[in-house]
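Backbones bend. We report:
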Amino acid sequence: MTAPKTSTTLMQMPTSDRQVVPGVSRKAVRNGVKTIAIYVVILVMAALTLVPFLWMLSTSLKVREQLYAFPPEWIPNPVSFESYRVLFDPLPFDIFFLNSLQVALLSLAGTLLACSLAAYAFARMRFPGREPIFALLLTTMMIPAQVLLLPLFILYKNIGWLDTLYPLWVPSFFGSAFGTFLLRQFFLSLPTELTDAAKIDGCSHFGIYWRIILPLSGPGLATLGIFTFMGSWNSFLVPLIVINKIDLRTVPLGLAALQGSNEIRLNAVMAASTLSILPILIVFFFAQKYFVQGVVLTGIKG
């Protein structure tokens, strides 16, 4: 019997073929270590972003004696829901939530309708001055919102809209520059062959918009919807200058009133803050898939 010639065979093989041996190559090990390091960094950053939320939730469940304990106690002992019950005693937070929900939903509907119509016009229709008008629309995004507070207050006062919820949601039915830009970019990423085929079949512009563009624009509409809902729910300046009645206040105004009282109950403030972010978390949880797709796809074509 002849001895195996494994070592001799390996010496005679080319250098590139010698790496094909049983086991894991160095390149695969490096890639694995790199991937693990990336995931560790992401997990650490995610944990750091969750710390304020966890502390807010923990504080809302503490009794008054535990609020300023040193060292701080992360786990309430005992767990108390008293701070949630007192929210509805000095201030009608249930009415504040209903007002904010009404304003947010109406603003959402108005923004999606107006911005999608304007975005379709800028993306698919041809008319004189389209590009200059769109550029002029984008320049309005550079105007600070604080500059418009005084003119808006005078306007709302003259038309009798002070101490009503109309100023908080009616302007959304006139669209926004950001929403129009976002949806226009998404509409431009859709195949033009679909709209051309619909035109050949005699479909009108509104038919193309309603039957073809909107059904294919779920990610873009979801992205704009999340931004709109968050902005309307957290709006503070406009409600502050147009609303004085307690029963018309929104959640941000209720939080400001709770913090501006003579005795600031930190656990009650944290309880109100916890409840105020729940609607946003619910909306983002159910629409996060479309939100990520919309953010990615809106930058494909410009």
